[in-house]
Amino acid sequence: MPHKYFADQFDDEEVLFIFRKHPIVMRKALIAACACLLIGPVFTLILTYTRPLNPPSMMFLFMSFVLSLVVGLIVMLPKWMGWFFSVYIVTDQRFIQISQKGLFHRSVVDMKLSQIQMVNYEIAGLQQTIFGFGTIVMQTVVGDLVIHEVHHPATIQKKLLEILRNNGGLVDAPADFDEGELEQYETED
Q: I want to staple 68 with a disulfide (CB 3.0 to 4.6 A). Which of 2, 40, 112, 120 is the partner?
């Protein structure tokens, strides 16, 4: 029996590609966590200047920094969990989007590869160009599936198109298709 990469994987299903969003999705939490690191040392500095006759000890500085580190990790943890546990899985049968938001909210989108009609990507703006992330839009039978802040969207789009063509997703025009026939039908209307 083949190895299962995720809990809902079918026995006859092969995982072809796994990707996730760019780590830049954690930028606001990272900035907040870095600001939290300053709380203990700044508090110690304030105490040093407000009580010059009885300044805090080095142990107090160290413990306040450790406490700041713990607070920073607590601030960062929900966003990191959302990034780490949000995964996009492409198998030989389906596309699965697992989205984790915070600690207790998970949503799953599961669709057959044959439901995907087109895959496009967009890199818009200076920040996305510099850091190499963008948006992938999958046009499906039921509507668009938009995935924001994907790392290297052009590479992922190319890989998705390759998988779709090889596994029954995108349907190419038949080999005997003649564009002249299409023009004939358009002019008759």
A: 40
